[in-house]
Write the structure tokens for this entry.
Amino acid sequence: MDLDKTAIALRQRSFADTIDLSFAVVRIYWRSLLGWAVLGVLPFAILNAICLARLTDFESMVVYDYNVIDPQVLRIRYVLWMASMVFLEAPLAMLGVTFFLGQSVFFSHPSVADFKQASRQSFWGIFWLLGVVRLGILGCLVPLMASSSNRVPLGFEFFVFGVLILGSIVCVRSVRPFAPEMLILERSPLRNNSSKSTSQGVVYRKRSKWLHGPFSGELLRRWIATSVVALFLIVSLSFGWLFCKSIFFNLPIWDWWMDFFLFPLTLWIVAIWSTVVRFLSYLDTRTRLEGWELELRLRAEGDRIREVLQ
């Protein structure tokens, strides 16, 4: 592997350049990105369908809930729940995409076996940080509690889940976004273990403080801008599906096809793009903080010198 030869030039970029580059990366690698995404998305998509199934019986829920008189209010509730679930699960579901991007930068073609090995090495960090602390797995239990009773006021449900739970996760992810990259690419352990090889990475907490701390304000601005672009993409794709349905099937309405298939598909497509943007921001942050492009050039030259001396 030639460390100084990369598929993506390592240099400082503005956020506008990062957004533009993200669409170019998606256009070039879309087949590989889609293949790696399916590995992680499929289990979560099935789980979401099971967890949110009871929230789609809009007519009967209107009959039993006297506080709601319009089924469309419950459909909006379901759409918000689905979007929230994908938001919580995306970093965990897109670990394969992150791993592929990290390897493809150096023109490497990772296999599923390579990804499994990397995941095993960082399993407890991935499980605890992405699955528990950031609710990638535990978040699936929340809609089960919400759908267990039709008598739960929508305002209370919105406040508890939308403000308290999602708000806390947004505060963490907006200024500490690179947890997947540190876990699956850098293999940062949760704590030092003297019984293991000294080749393990820097402890996650120290690494996170070093990587995120100096640019927390810039990372927050980038997260907000990415969220705005992602929202426009979701709206555009959703109305695009409706337009295609009206043209080919004469069904210009939001029906069960949109609820169960097309809208979740839209969310996961945007999640793939958001993962690419986050990875490119990770490269930019490392370049700004650590002079990563210079480090790779020096390491590559050192490897060549050692080969000559041998």
